[in-house]
Small ribosomal subunit protein bS16 (Candidatus Azambacteria bacterium RBG_16_47_10), 94 residues
Amino acid sequence: MIIIRLQRVGRKNAQHFRVVLAEKTTSPRGKAIETLGFVNPHTKERSFNKDRIIYWISKGAGLSDTVSNFLVTEKIIDAPKIAKHKKTKKEVKK
């Protein structure tokens, strides 16, 4: 399955992320099919290639939870935000 997700780039303590289209089973640091934008968490700068993202979603590409929330915030897709919570110690033990 093809998925749109974040790929970490940059130096230690100065990371930023590329929004990439990649096979779900490949390593997050592996080769991407296409770069669709970037996110810089330090400067809060975000840039997305809206046309290509909509194209790949129409072809059946999935979205990671974080990328989905970014696209909802930027009003590229119309969907509710996905709540992300850390698992409790009890949930981890099960």
Observations:
- The CA atoms of residues 22 and 31 lie 7 Å apart.
